[in-house]
Amino acid sequence: MKLHIILIGFMGTGKTTVGTIIAETLSRQMVDTDQYLEEKRGKTIPDIFRDEGEARFRDCEHNVLKELIQSPKPLVITTGGGIVLRKDNVKLMQNSGFVVALTASRNALIERLQHDASRPLLQGDLAQRIDRLLTERRNAYDFAHFKVDTTDKTPDEVAQIIVAQCQQHSGVFKDIFRRQ
């Protein structure tokens, strides 16, 4: 089985930006689950939340993850922050790739997300919403094979750290570091 590099973490930790750099470095395709879902459904994430609710969104997110995991080519997959809320998603990711959790301090998240109105779960008092979600998801990302705190690092630095870990674990995670 070919393994994917899967980035998980809270909103605003830099998953999509870092994933793009990793994909370019490794000559892989990068797919963001939220963007892919929006393209498939022809609706934005906020519209899906508003029209169909969070539970339906989570079902769609799960189906997208299952589809991407089946790719015959190893991908760099970046995920929405809440994809870890379903145990079946966690199992899929653990069994299909090198899972890297990106983290950041509360203050960094507030700073990064303060002008982003596209996130349905952050509507209202931003700091209060972030605090609540961080509390609810306190251990949700702990299953990752590796963690990187992005607070004081550039996206390039984070990507370099992850690529180095992929190289280091290439024997353990068969086929994970393969330049195509």
From TrEMBL:
EC number(s) stated in the UniProt entry for this protein:
2.7.1.71
Catalysis performed (reactions): shikimate + ATP = 3-phosphoshikimate + ADP + H(+)
Per its Swiss-Prot or TrEMBL entry, what cofactor is needed? Mg(2+)
Gene Ontology cellular component terms for the protein in this record: cytosol
What is its subcellular localisation? Cytoplasm
Q: Where is this protein chiefly located?
A: cytoplasm
What pathway is this protein a component of? Metabolic intermediate biosynthesis; chorismate biosynthesis; chorismate from D-erythrose 4-phosphate and phosphoenolpyruvate: step 5/7
Q: Which residues bind Mg(2+)?
A: T16
Top EC class of this enzyme: transferase
**Keyword DNA damage appears in the UniProt entry:** no
The entry's free-text remark on the cofactor is: Binds 1 Mg(2+) ion per subunit.
User: Residues that bind ATP, according to the entry?
Assistant: G12, T13, G14, K15, T16, T17, R119
**GO terms for biological process, alphabetical:** amino acid biosynthetic process; aromatic amino acid family biosynthetic process; chorismate biosynthetic process
Any one GO MF annotation of this record: ATP binding
Q: Which UniProt keywords apply?
A: Amino-acid biosynthesis, Aromatic amino acid biosynthesis, ATP-binding, Cytoplasm, Kinase, Magnesium, Metal-binding, Nucleotide-binding, Transferase
Binding site residues for substrate: D34, R58, G81, R137
Query: Does RNA-binding show up as a keyword for this record?
Result: no
Which family does the entry's similarity section mention?
Answer: Belongs to the shikimate kinase family.
Query: What do we know about how this protein assembles, alone or with others?
Result: Monomer.
Function, as annotated: Catalyzes the specific phosphorylation of the 3-hydroxyl group of shikimic acid using ATP as a cosubstrate.
Q: What is this protein called?
A: Shikimate kinase
UniProt source species? Novibacillus thermophilus
Q: Which gene encodes it?
A: aroK
